[in-house]
Amino acid sequence: MHKWIVKENVIEGYSPANHTGTVNKRLISQETVGAKHMEVLIGTIEKNQGALPHAHPDLEQVCYLLSGSADVEMDGEKGKLEPGDCCYFPPYKKHIFTVTSEEPARVLIIYSPPYEEKPERVIR
After folding, report:
1. Taking the CA of residue 77 as centre, how many other CA atoms within 13 Å lie in the half-sphere pointing to its CB?
2. Which fold has domain 8-121?
3. How confident is the model at residue 50 (pLDDT cuts 50, 70, 90)?
């Protein structure tokens, strides 16, 4: 097996802090492939669940919706995501992500630099 290819089905899921009904899998990271400047996750989020209001200092985040639908909010500005849509959350901007579809949503999440679920990288 190549060290630079990651299979989702062998990655253990976890429930991220400040999220409800969410299971993430860290696909690209220091641990999986040695990535130092980015982190890529796949998230599965249940209906009416998702990210509670929070921000990340010195960290950029992109969410690409693979399936399902979601409402997003950043600094009081609201939007809707359908499959194929993505959104960008800049550092220090409070944001919310809530699934609106009946079926769970699948979201590809990219952080730069890596978030790694470190408490100092989130502001509630």
Report:
1. 6
2. Jelly Rolls (2.60.120)
3. very high
